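G., the chain you wanted modeled:
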Amino acid sequence: MAAPVPLAFDPWDPAFVADPYPAFAELRARGRVLYYEPSDQWLVPHHADVSALLRDRRLGRTYQHRFSHEEFGRTPPPAEHEPFHTLNDHGMLDLEPPDHTRIRRLVSKAFTPRTVERLKPYVRALADDLVARLVAAGGGDLLRDVAEPLPVAVIAEMLGIPESERAPLRPWSADICGMYELNPSEATAAKAVRASVEFSEYLRDLIAARRKEPGDDLVSGLIAAHDEGDRLTEQEMISTCVLLLNAGHEATVNATTNGWLALFRNPAQLAALRADPSLVPSAVEELMRYDTPLQLFERWVLDEIEIDGTVLPQGAEVAMLFGSANHDPAVFADPDRLDLARRDNPHISFSAGIHYCIGAPLARIELAASMTSLLERAPALKLAAEPRRRPNFVMRGLEALPVEV
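Predicted structure as tokens:
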């Protein structure tokens, strides 16, 4: 077995969570794959390996299309967690072909580039309104006032969820996403189960209403989507809607706040961006690379695989470190430097392979819209107090981002 991983890698240590990038450099220096006993995972820190393994069919997001829990040497989840796993296990993110292929194809029929492009004016108008309110108040919490309401409203608008019914969406999403951290507690699991039940019941009612009275929304599109006789089941529709909300706004919220904190801490780059707004598209990509909103993505070893002389047996779990890969000097020149004009930027913040983020075009539109609005309407925006990081490692973000205009 590989040598123990340096203690510098500790996803439950607030100091590590505050700045994991030095520890990632240590991991990359130690090797291409390292066993981490506390989470029983093999850590993969290099960009080339992460990129290749995301496309390698010997690894999978699930193993249940080929093995039972017992056959795979794993303990089945507790029965009381079933509502979370039913919801999670029917979404594209946690499926493998052929189910993944079928569902992604059907979802793509409703979630088209044209659908996303049509949202641009709505997204920009909403961003302008949120930023105008922030400016009128003289500042506030950039997370609560701009970063969070924007993607939640956009996804809700796409799904056809009325404004009066949107308040629980963010809490439901946050509670469900708690299960994606390493070794979540029973309290976290209980919150995720409750949110899974409540969110699923809400969406079941919404789907029933759209069956009776279809609209020009994504839920109606998912109901109508069919291909060679295939349709999405009700559970697949529910899981798809939850995935689009969770992935579509958790990552965007964190990318927005991580990005602005990075800008405040790199004033020369912020000044360059204010002087040349044409940098916005490359700035969005660079900020997602520089402080990656999703730090770790897991895969199961379906068929034995060897990495640099280390054999990973069937049944092992691989943790691909996106944040480390995005700071790999073998791929990125001077990776710890924020460079908003960086052109060669093959970051993997949206994953790769068959599980590449279906919402990446929408996320880019949202990030560019909020950034442009803030540059135009709050040209003197600055940090009002030192922000606190959320204790989470996998989904990296802030609890708040206090600003003055």
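DSSP finds 17 helices and twelve strands in the chain.

Shout if anything looks off.
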